[in-house]
Amino acid sequence: MAVRSAVKTVKRPHAATADVSPITRGEGALAVYQQLRERIVRGRLAPGSRLVEREVAARLGVSRTPVRAALERLRQEGYIIATGSALLARTTVAPLTNDDAREIHMIVAQIEGLAAREAAGKPKAVRLAMTRDMRQLNAQFSKAAQVRLPDSDRLHDLDDAFHQRYVDVGAGPRLRVLHNAVKPQAERYGRIYTSTLVSEVSTSVAEHEAIIKALEAGDAAKAQRAVQTNWENAAERLAQVISAVGERGAW
């Protein structure tokens, strides 16, 4: 992946309570968690933004109890960090760093690699339906990058849909839980750092085709490795972007 230009600087607000909607009566910590995570992933709550429990609760129209539970889950999953003593802890949206990006991408590579390995073992009819969809998505991905002003969100969504197809087919319930917890953190990097995939899209398309062919052939080992290679290469491309434009939210 490569960026078209340097990523625009996002102002760091004192408290990250903007762009959130009140929680419906009866909803609790899960709704708070989902709403905050969505905004973190899409960059609406910028890296380094402060999250003040009472301000988030007031903005969402809930008590501090579900907010506290949601923030703890976000912290455990790596979306936010808490610094300072227990009484004077400062909670902020986690920074985007090269080391963190690499770790996340390597984890996703292993999880999705396992899903692809299992998908390759499905009956032929299932594999052919899956790979037909994947090839169509890959073609759309390639075409979307060829317009004069590519839509980076559309490129990201098509790439995500491509990978999600074999995860849906191959992943069991435990693998899905792990994938759902980690994959959005990789998405966070993609949406914030990648302005466009144009300069590297042909490489990504070729890597995708290798995944498709291995799945079509029912070659589990090759499918697993093809997925891992795609994610490992994506990590290297992202590392170049971060090195060029700088880490976000880190001191």
Walk me through the structure.
The chain has 251 residues and is mainly alpha-helical. It has two domains: 1-94, Arc Repressor Mutant, subunit A, CATH 1.10.10.10; 98-245, GntR ligand-binding domain-like (Four Helix Bundle (Hemerythrin (Met), subunit A), Up-down Bundle), CATH 1.20.120. Helices cover 64% and strands 3% of the residues. It is built from nine helices and two strands; from the N terminus they run αααββαααααα. The protein has helices at residues 29-41, 53-60, 64-76, 98-119, 124-144, 152-170, 173-193, 201-217, 220-245, and strands at residues 80-83, 90-93. It has a two-stranded antiparallel ribbon. Helix 4 crosses helix 7 and helix 4 runs antiparallel to helix 9. The two termini are 25 Å apart.
Radius of gyration: 19 Å
Provide the β-strand percentage band.
under 5%
> Biggest sheet: strands side by side, in what order?
1-2
Return the string of H and E elements.
HHHEEHHHHHH
Biggest sheet details = 2 strands, antiparallel
The CATH topology of the largest domain is what? Answer: Four Helix Bundle (Hemerythrin (Met), subunit A)
Quaternary: single chain
The CATH class of the largest domain: Mainly Alpha
Please bin the fraction of helical residues. Answer: 55-70%
Number of strands: 2
Structure annotation, total helices: 9
Strand pairing plus helix content: what structural class? mainly alpha
Principal-axis shape equals: globular
pLDDT < 50 runs, ≥5 residues? 1-18
Measure the end-to-end span.
Answer: 25 Å
Named at the architecture level, the CATH assignment of the largest domain is Up-down Bundle
Going by CATH, the homologous superfamily of the largest domain would be GntR ligand-binding domain-like
Task: Indicate how many domains the architecture comprises.
Answer: 2
In round numbers, the mean pLDDT is 86
